[in-house]
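[recover] target loaded
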C-alpha cells in the first residue's frame, strides 16, 4: 500500500507540474497573440525630456503639444495605423523642424532626434482606455541628452490630449479603435475595470509584458 501511495503522490506531482507548464504556455501564447493584435491597432508617441528639471519638463510638454497638433493636421482622414505611420514617416523632417523651432523659441539650443521604431511601453491608461505593457510602433522624440522623464501616449487614434484635459476619450477615437481591432481586444482595453473576466485577461497581459516574456516585435 505504501508503494502505491508513493506512486500516486509522484503521479499527482508530475501531472500538477505538467498542468502548470501547459497553463503557463497557454497564457504566454494568449498574451503574445493579444498584445500583437492590440499593438497593431495603435501608433504611439514617446517623448524624452533633456532632464528632470522643471524647465526641461515644461519644454517637453510644449514640444509634445506642437507635434500632436501637426500630427492631427496631417492625419485628419486616416483610418488605420499603417496609414498613420506612412504619413508620419514621410514627414519626419517636419516633426524634427517643429521640435527644434519650439525649443529655440523657448530659449534653448537642444538637439533633437526623431525616429519611428518598435519600442517597449509600460501599461498606460487614457481616460477609460488602458493599453497593456508591451512593444508598440511609435514616433520617438529625444530632446537634448534625453535623460529626463518620458511622455508616453497614442498618436493614432488621437488619445494624447486626454491626460491634460477632460480625462474622457472622445467617441470618435473609440470608434476608430473598434474598427481596427476585434471585439474581444477592444473589450479588453476598455472594460478591464468593470468585467472580472476581462480584468483577469488584462492582468495576464500585464504580467507577461512586465516580466519581459513577450518580446516579439512587429
Amino acid at each position: 500500500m505504501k508503494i502505491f501511495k508513493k506512486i500516486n503522490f509522484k503521479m499527482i506531482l508530475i501531472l500538477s507540474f505538467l498542468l502548470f507548464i501547459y497553463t503557463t504556455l497557454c497564457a504566454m501564447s494568449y498574451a503574445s497573440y493579444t498584445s500583437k493584435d492590440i499593438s497593431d491597432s495603435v501608433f504611439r508617441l514617446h517623448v524624452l525630456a533633456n532632464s528632470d528639471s522643471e524647465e526641461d519638463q515644461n519644454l517637453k510638454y510644449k514640444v509634445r503639444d506642437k507635434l500632436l497638433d501637426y500630427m492631427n493636421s496631417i492625419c485628419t482622414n486616416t483610418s488605420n495605423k499603417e496609414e498613420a505611420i506612412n504619413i508620419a514617416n514621410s514627414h519626419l523632417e517636419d516633426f524634427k523642424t517643429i521640435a527644434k523651432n519650439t525649443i529655440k523659441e523657448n530659449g534653448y539650443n537642444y538637439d533633437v532626434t526623431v525616429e519611428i521604431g518598435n519600442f517597449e511601453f509600460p501599461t498606460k491608461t487614457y481616460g477609460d482606455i488602458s493599453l497593456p505593457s508591451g512593444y508598440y510602433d511609435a514616433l520617438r522624440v529625444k530632446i537634448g541628452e534625453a535623460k529626463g522623464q518620458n511622455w508616453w501616449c497614442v498618436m493614432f487614434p488621437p488619445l494624447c490630449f486626454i491626460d491634460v484635459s477632460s480625462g474622457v476619450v472622445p467617441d470618435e477615437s473609440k470608434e476608430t479603435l473598434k474598427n481596427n481591432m476585434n471585439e474581444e481586444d477592444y473589450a479588453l482595453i476598455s472594460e478591464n475595470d468593470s468585467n472580472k473576466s476581462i480584468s483577469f485577461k488584462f492582468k495576464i497581459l500585464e504580467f507577461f509584458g512586465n516580466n519581459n516574456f513577450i518580446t516579439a516585435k512587429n
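[recover] notes: Residues 36-210 form one domain.
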